[in-house]
From TrEMBL:
Residues 196-223 form a coiled coil. It comes from the Eukaryota. It is found in: Cell projection, Cilium; Cytoplasm, Cytoskeleton. It comes from Sitta europaea. This is ENKUR protein. Residues 16-65 are annotated as: Disordered. GO terms for cellular component: acrosomal vesicle; axonemal microtubule. GO terms for molecular function: calmodulin binding. Residues 136-228 form the Enkurin domain. Residues 43-62 have a biased composition (Basic and acidic residues). Keywords: Cell projection, Coiled coil, Cytoplasm, Cytoskeleton.
Amino acid sequence: PLRYISKFREFVKHEAEKNKSQWKTMGPAKVAVPSPNNFLQKHSKEPKLAPRKKEQEGEKLRPLSVPGRTYQPVIRIKKNFINKNAVAVITGKPKKPQNFCVDTRQGDKYLLETSGLFPKYINKKNYGVTPKYVTQRNEEMKREEEEYQASVLEQLKKKSMKTLSEEERTNVLKALKKKWEETNHAFQALPVIIDTRYKQMQKEELELKLEQLEHDIAAIEKHKCVYIAN
């Protein structure tokens, strides 16, 4: 096979010759030399403050933070903490003793309040009351269910579904039960010994009819609103 030759070969060769042409005069190309007048002066890099503005006539001076001569500091009254603590102890309510249980002969004891044996929660005022977040969540779920039912009804109305009235539903249910009784009577009238193919087919057909009728009766009894598509 022929030797591989890159298609960028000429481009690379041209770039290499172009970059080398600047160094043919013994050094880089000549550039503008900075002026000697722009030399670094002393204190030229230090930050300079903005010029101070002269105070205008009639301008109000800011109040000084130093207190005036007529200022009198507030003298704190010395408190007698011993008497204060004694009065607080006398007038205060006595502490209730903590309930604890001793479970060994050596006197080892533990608090009943943190052990789970003390009836702490049943004595609360809100014991047995449904929490607010549960009530709120139940209300939200109920509202969502109502919205879903409303959307389902709206979709059913859009699809022009017909709703059976209570009277029609009752009549259909009675007709189905009557049909089930007739089919069941025919099923009971079958011979005890089924030895032919015709008898087997007749029995299977009656069983399928009974199963379908029972399913339809249970569905209509379970759902009070029955819709019929056009």
